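Input structure tokens:
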């Protein structure tokens, strides 16, 4: 993202921009990882009670949908952002009645065509499932079909397998099994590997807090100043090479195999450079720790990623539209870069012109320091 404007105004945006981009990128990325692990099974965002404050719950939900979640239990976020709502009953509902069966019956009176019963309040296999089956049969006799059950504790693999057997034997093979309880992508992967017959995942704290990586250290740095129509590139120097900034007004290109939607790298260039589809181009890797920094790229199509936005004339884009765009862009990236364990690095290069500008400014600052 490049923000252009009077220095005082642009500087005022720093905290706001970083707060929005860093937080929501974390949640969207976590949702992407969870969605990948779920292998096409729906994910319900359940995290409002674990979020770090009301705003984090609202905008975390929005980011989770963008990253791949399918619905939310946060009804305010659903209303504000037009997100599908999905949830099940609470343990407190069941505990508020004299017994579990009565609680199930009262729930299905309220939601005869959307009944998903929470079966782990007392005993999943000896109480929850048998009582659920009883109520499901009553629903069917009245002309309704149940949605399914939710398990929120215990050995989920064993319980879900036994629950599936009981539901099928009772004549409810289409009743879905939803699980929740501190899930993350690694637990989901393990459960599915073990053969747990799970249809949906309700994910709360590990998603809404991006528990495995709760901080994204995105930065907002001055890259150039302009005076009397003359642009002057700026650089921040650090003792750590990886914290050295990239100077100048820039454009970012995604590089594709010709005639395809298969991307293989990104290229950062100065905005004044013209990058066209090429048969050969020398570039420099932006990884400061790389041993072989200069490389030769051949046969690619370059498509710009940055486009101007007029903030005085913006319209609200539906979250589901943003999600669809996200999924389409992810599909263009190499699958080997998306796996959860030992992913390949996705290359990001600089043009030689940009790299030389960075080096010249670095050398200049070093001479001044001396």
């Amino acid at each position: 993202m490049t923000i252009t404007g009077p220095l005082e105004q642009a500087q005022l945006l720093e905290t706001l921009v970083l707060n929005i981009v860093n937080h929501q990128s974390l949640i969207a990325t976590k949702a992407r990882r969870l969605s990948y692990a779920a292998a096409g099974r729906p994910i319900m965002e359940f995290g409002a009670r674990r979020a770090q404050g009301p705003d984090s719950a609202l905008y975390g939900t929005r980011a989770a949908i963008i990253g791949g979640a399918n619905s939310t239990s946060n009804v305010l976020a659903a209303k504000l952002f037009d997100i599908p709502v999905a949830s099940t009953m609470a343990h407190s509902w069941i505990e508020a009645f004299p017994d579990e069966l009565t609680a199930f019956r009262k729930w299905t009176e309220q939601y005869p065509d959307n009944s998903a019963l929470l079966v782990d309040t007392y005993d999943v296999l000896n109480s929850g499932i048998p009582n659920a089956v009883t109520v499901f049969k009553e629903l069917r006799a009245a002309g309704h079909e149940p949605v399914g059950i939710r398990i929120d504790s215990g050995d989920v693999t064993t319980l879900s397998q036994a629950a599936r057997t009981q539901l099928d034997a009772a004549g409810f093979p289409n009743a879905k099994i939803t699980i929740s309880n501190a899930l993350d992508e690694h637990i989901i992967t393990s459960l599915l590997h073990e053969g747990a017959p799970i249809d949906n995942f309700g994910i709360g704290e590990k998603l809404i807090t991006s528990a495995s990586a709760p901080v994204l250290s995105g930065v907002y740095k001055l890259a150039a100043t302009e005076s009397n129509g003359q642009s002057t590139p700026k650089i921040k120097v650090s003792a750590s090479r990886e914290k050295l900034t990239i100077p100048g007004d820039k454009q970012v290109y995604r590089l594709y195999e010709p005639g395809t939607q298969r991307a293989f790298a990104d290229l950062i260039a100065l905005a004044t450079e013209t990058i066209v589809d090429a048969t050969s181009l020398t570039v420099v890797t932006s990884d400061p720790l790389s041993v072989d920094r200069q490389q030769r790229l051949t046969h690619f199509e370059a498509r710009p990623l940055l486009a101007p936005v007029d903030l005085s004339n913006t319209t609200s884009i539906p979250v589901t539209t943003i999600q669809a765009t996200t999924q389409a862009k992810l599909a263009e990236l190499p699958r080997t870069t998306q796996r959860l364990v030992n992913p390949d690095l996705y290359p990001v290069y600089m043009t030689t012109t940009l790299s030389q500008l960075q080096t010249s400014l670095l050398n200049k600052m070093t001479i001044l320091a001396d």
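The first strand starts at residue 43 and ends at 45. The chain is about 40% helix and 15% strand.
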